[in-house]
Amino acid sequence: MSENDHGVEDSPAIETHDLVRSFDDFLAVDSIGLRVPRGCFFGFLGPNGAGKSTTIKMLTGLLRITSGGASILGHDVERDARAVKRLIGVVPEDLPLFEGLTAAENLAFVARMHGLPRAQIAGRSGELLEMMDLTAGKKLVADFSHGMRKKLALACALIPGPRVLFLDEPFEGIDAVASRHIRALLEDLTERGVTVFLTSHILEIVDRLCTHVAVIHRGKLVAQGAVAEMGIDRTLEEIFLDLVDADPQDRPTLSWLA
Amino acid sequence: MSGGGTVSQVLAIVWLRRRLLMNRLRRGEGVWDLVGTILLGVLWGVVAVGAAIGLGAVMLPAARAGDESLLFKLQVGVIAAAFFAGTVLPLLVEKETGEVVTERLLVFPLTPARLFWIAQAALALSVDHLFYLPALLVVAAAAVLGAGSVSAGLAVVLAVWLGVLAWGQAVQLGTEVLLRGRRSREALAVVVLVLILAMGMGPGLVGEYLDHHPLADGAVLRQGVTAALAVGRSLAPWQAASALQAARTGETGTWLINLGGTTLWLMAGLLVSRWFFLRFYLGDRGRAKGAGPDRAVVGKSFRPVEWRLEVGWIPPETVANAVKDLRIILRSLTGRMLLILTPAIMGFMGWSVLADITEPYRGLGPDQLRFYGMFFSISLITQGLNNNILAFERGGVQGYFLLPGRLPWVLLGKNLGLWIYQFLILAICLVAILIVGTRIEGMILVTGSLVFIVMAVYRALIGNLLSCLFPVPRTMSSRRTRQSAMGNLLSFVAVFLFLPLVWLCAALPSLLGDPKWGLWGVSILLAVTLGLYFASLGPVAALLSERRERILMALSKGDK
After folding, report:
1. What is the pLDDT of residues B318-333, one digit of tens each?
2. Which end of chain A is less crowded, N or C, counting CB atoms within 10 A of the terminal residue's CB?
3. Dihedral sign from CA coordinates of B280, B283, B286, B291
């Protein structure tokens, strides 16, 4: 295991310092400082529009950082972008799939971009397709359902053998059986030292899987730490609603709707 | 759910399109596109009016001199050309239609019939279909010059114009259904349509050309010409030209019969078009994604071929992208259509139009003109694929920024895939023109192929740059897609600016008196172009990386 493959020893999996991203006058991410330990299952939570996806996009190189900095396994995400890309797997909000290819061809493309040898591509691709129940033969991604696309995107993120996995809403649109398989797979990965960084609106799943969480609200980090230390005798949902100033008793109605 | 009246629904659609455009402009996204659209519209307008003036310069004196035979031939020719431009050309040249809106309207309380008429109205007002209107008006003006009834002439023009519109949409939708390979009835209908339009109109025009020609004096050929004319005269261009002639001479009965014939063609076009429209939008498209058996089983025409491209010394990201892009293009509707129709059209041109070139022009001999003309035509036909090479990948384009592949080698791979595809078309076109009996001299073939390579490399160079600057989402599963108007305009300007240089190199043999000079000239130009291309990869990749946020944002949007 070389340092280049697995990052700078002893550095956290993900670390950000005063990370800022603005779009013209709008501050989407406001000076956040994250510290994600290696091998943990990290849940990144926040209401819609809080800045979760923007943060993931900055960490994975899809968005430029306005100010501050971020590193993954000790590599700066902007200065050392290529080394970072070798270490990570990403399932972003808009799935990075090629609709004119089959599932196997999408996997082969990603593996080739990572420079994997042909024998390894065939072996890993077969296992992933089997596990994700994507052995759809010649069916093109254009004909896939949303859930199938999501599973394929996850398979594409996994095929190079990443050390840090970024997942933006991985369980959205996935059936219960597949969701169970994916949860088991992700737990297995973290047991083997892979860091999983995920955003999800399904707090039950985050509660069940994550060892660490951070909550972002209106671009600012409002809480961060191990789940066990965040609140005694309270569910994650209660803690989350409290942190984002939401009233649990608030029940809006539409008088004109029958 | 309320029903809503037709007028309010149409107004809602007009409001939607205006709002989308205004919002894009407000965000500074669509300014260049709008400028490009206006410039292209002006350019098309100038060409259309220019062609009409040229046509008038020939037709009006013929009308004044009373040369009825020439006038009729020109009327048939122009109307047939309008049908060709409205039905076959759109299959080869990408164009904008209102498909995005049409598809989205399916969820609203609009009957399919109403939706069909809204789509027809949107098409009627597109630049493509307004393009040949001036020429048709000149044809009518020449017909009624001096004596005939203006309204009778205009009625014929209106019937022809709407007929072209209806048949154009019928052929396009039918071809899409055919190439999706899912419905045999539609496939059969398209084949019959193409047979009627091409097999009927082609011989009809040849018959018209050979009629009264000394060549047709032989008994056998005479019979052939008569039969071809009989077929041709039942078709819309002949019916319309006859109606115009009747409008000129004031024979109301004949005018009515022939206008009726033209209108019958229009009605038939509308019926066929409506049939395809309903099949296209309410047929397979409604099938839930992910449902149903494997596509390879359903679609007999779809067979992904397993092949590899393994070259050790080429960077893996280049190979991966070349293979990926070639696969996607060959499976796409655009790719398949160009692959099938380009050789068919080139074969037809090799047999008809190109065979007529017998005189040298500006340093190029007839053979050179024929083959360079063919190579250049293929270049222009595949031009659209170069200008927007990132856009058909939509979300997939994120892969270039998430994966560790080096961007210059990624771009090279994408260009390589497109070059292989273009050479495949060229090879099939060469076979097609050989089949129709055209002979190719070895030196011209070599020089011509080098010219094609020079053009391919140059267009890739320009296309890479434009793809970064003007990315617009494309749907490769449909012909009815759009490109950046400004990107298109700039790419054509760039190609036409480069053309004199290519022409000069190709004309060197006659300028310097030795056939080998052509080869040398084009080889030097190729070396320079390749040098520029490889020198451009780094800066264009840097631009791609620099503009990644705008590119990702542009390609993830549907409202265009």
Report:
1. 989 999 999 888 887 7
2. C
3. negative
Query: How far, CA to CA in Å, does A3 sit from each of A87, B185, B282?
Result: 11, 62, 57
- Phi-psi region at A17: left, alpha or beta (left = phi > 0; alpha = psi -120 to 50): beta
Break chain B into its structural domains and give their ranges. 45-290, 315-556
Closest partner CB to A64 (pick from B399, B549, B556): B549
Q: Which residues in chain A are closer than 8 Å to B556, comparing Cβ atoms? A: 94
Average pLDDT, chain B: 75
Q: Which of the pair, A3 or B46, is modelled with greater confidence?
A: B46
What is the distance between the alpha carbons of residues B536 and B541, in angstroms, rounded to a whole number? 8
Token representation of residue A69: 């900095």
Q: What is the C-alpha to C-alpha distance for residues B280 and B109, in angstroms, rounded to an integer?
A: 18
Count CB-CB contacts under 10 A for residue A3. Answer: 11
Quick check: B409 and B317 in contact, CB under 8 A? yes
Which helix H or strand E contains A14, and what residues bound it?
Answer: strand A14-23
The helix or strand, by DSSP H or E, that contains position A71, with its residue range, turns out to be strand A67-72
B192-219: per-residue pLDDT in tens? 666 556 545 655 666 665 555 555 555 5
Give the distance from residue A112's alpha carbon to the nearest chain B alpha carbon, in angstroms: 6
Taking CB atoms and an 8 Å cut-off, how many pairs form between chains A and B? 109
Residue matched to tokens 């091409």: B198
* Residues constituting chain A: 258
* Residue of chain A with shortest Cα separation from B288: A145
Using DSSP's 3-state secondary structure scheme, residue A223 falls into strand
- Residue B122 backbone dihedrals phi, psi, to 5 degrees: -65, -40
Q: How far is B179 from chain A (nearest CA, A)?
A: 15
pLDDT for B29: 62
Note the pLDDT of residue B434. 77
Among the residues of B201-306, which ranges form H helices? Answer: 201-210, 219-233, 236-249, 252-282, 295-298
Cβ A62–B303 below 8 Å, yes or no? no
Average pLDDT over residues B284-297: 46
Q: Kindly identify which residue of chain A lies nearest to residue B285, measuring between CA atoms.
A: A143
What CA–CA distance (Å, rounded) separates A29 from A40?
23
pLDDT tens digits, B31-77:
777 777 778 778 888 888 898 888 888 888 888 888 888 888 888 88
**SS3 at position B460:** helix
- At residue B376, the 3 state secondary structure works out as helix
d(C-alpha A215, C-alpha B521), whole Å: 66
Instruction: Kindly write down the DSSP assignment for every residue of B243-262, as one continuous string.
Output: HHHHHHHT-HHHHHHHHHHH
User: Which DSSP letter does residue A68 get?
Assistant: E
Residues of B in contact with A147 (CB under 8 A): 290
What's the average model confidence in pLDDT over A215-221? Answer: 92
Contact B402 A61 (CB under 8 A): yes
In whole angstroms, what is the distance from residue B61 CA to residue B311 CA?
64
Distance from the A30 Cα atom to the nearest Cα atom in chain B, whole angstroms: 19
**How close, in Å, is residue A144 to chain B by CA atoms?**
4
Residues of A with CB under 8 A from a CB of B: 60-64, 82, 85-86, 88, 90, 92, 94-102, 105, 108-110, 112-115, 118, 136-140, 142-148
Instruction: Give the pLDDT of residue B420.
Output: 92
- Decide if B317 and A146 are in contact by the 8 Å CB cutoff: no
- In percent, the amount of chain A with pLDDT more than 90 equals 45
- Other CB atoms closer than 10 Å to residue B312's CB: what's the count? 6
Which of residues B81 and B464 earns the better pLDDT score? B464
pLDDT higher for B266 or A254? B266
Question: What interface predicted TM-score (ipTM) does this complex get?
Answer: 0.78
- The predicted pLDDT at position B225 comes to 59
DSSP A49: T
* The model's pTM: 0.74
